[in-house]
Amino acid sequence: MASDTMTVAALSRPFTLGMFYDAVKDELIPDLTLWDAKTLKDNTVENSQHSSDFQISISDTTESKSSLLNIEASLKASFLAGLVEVKGSANSKVLLGEARPHVVTGILYGANAFFVFDSEKVEADSVQKMEGSMRALIKKIPAFDVEGKVDLKLTDEEKALTQKFSCKFYGDFILESNPSTFEEAVNAYVGLPKLLGEEGENSVPLTVWLVPLKYVDPEVPELINEISIGLVIEIEDVLDDLRRMEARCNDSLVEGVVGDFPCLQEVLTRFQKLCSYYRADLQKTMVKILPSIREGKEDESSLRRIIEEREKSPFSHEKLSKWLDCKEREVNVVWACVEIIPDIKFVANQTELEREVLAPLAVFSFCFIFTFLETADPCLDNMRNYLDGEKSGSSEPTYISDDFLTQMTDKAYTFKKVENDLKGPKVKFFVAAILNKKFPGASVYEYIGGNLVDENYQMLWLPCWFSKPSIWNKSPTVSPAKRHHTSSSMLQGGNHACRDHPFTFTTSHKDTAGGTKDLKF
């Protein structure tokens, strides 16, 4: 009989002695108990087991979380599939006759408290150092509890470190306010024993012992199969891998430069959602298959096939990782160019750009255009089609080469030089992302009087009037008759080659002899 006893983590579920538990679906069977209240009261034995445990985990994997919650392999399979939620409750639709019931014969009461500390984003080569510093500081938390009072003594270096991470609380305790800083977390930790109550009256089930109902009624159907540890590990690896992909994508989404480019934001968000949908779809399938395996209606191969099919799908580890590599490269390339031309105004789209260049003061406008960013993505389309049960094609994401990057940064440096040379109240500079396959990578659009006159401005010439800086202190006027015409003739103005532009500037200018001349350009 001892070998048939099951031990499961309560996971905040409302277990009571004598109640039934369906081990096939890992859920409580409500409103039924094997014994009446008097029998339970007369035969219940209570033992006091005062203890506490303090653990630190720097991993965010399902394995580490399951270990902290004492979730064994079979329950973990249900937890991964979504059959069991940490805040789960009984399903009132379960009937005893449909289940493979066990009876609750023992309960360990207590409470769990989890303080999750998150650091601000750090560079990859600093992650290990940050983890070590955080671990060393968090390890000191029990030492700050001096006879139930907080004695928080930190060095200046430790105080600086606490400013770099935040805290979230999860647990069985109801706190007056949830901690968000390290100091608040320490205060909450020190006060936990009081929240249990003097007699532990606020404690909740932590661990539950179950025995099969067959020992009471031999005709009750029994559990036939359990999920093997090897298969549970495979399921765990797949779901953790998908979560890591979503987390990688989120790291790119929170990059400041991504927020300035809606097209980048859109494709990254779409990828993240598709991964989430696929993970939910996997879990939905597992919810159907796991009970059938336990009842002996199906074997584990049916679940293994689903895991193997993933590697042939658009959601394989290789394809998801490759797509993220390419997008992370795109983000880095955009960031590198934007760093060269800081303080230039971003415009979200073509419409906003037109509004800016048509503004009365924007006589001359230059816009650095990222021409390769677009919302259409064949890889994402394949992922969507796969989820919809449609045939998905084969496509590869484009990785930006070093040569391509060099061309774009060279253009950004030249754009910056022109911006420095041509600063003036009538000249505006912008940055935008507009798809233009004629000029792959990046291009510079030149606008005059709101009209696009060049989609690939080479910046090899300067208009003749740019050689006379004093002009920018005056007011240029546009000649309406010539507004829509350009001339290809080249003039020589100062030390610059310049193109004859269809604008007339009239200003009063003093020459070196002190006389006054009217200049027209």
Automatic annotation (TrEMBL):
Domain SNTX thioredoxin-like: 343-458
Domain Stonustoxin-like helical: start-end pairs: 237-332
Annotated coiled-coil segments of the chain: none
Alphabetical list of Pfam families matching this protein: Stonustoxin_helical, Thioredoxin_11
Alphabetical list of InterPro entries matching this protein: Cytolytic_pore-forming_toxin, Stonustoxin-like_helical, Thioredoxin_11
Protein's UniProt name: Uncharacterized protein
Native species: Amphiprion percula (Orange clownfish)
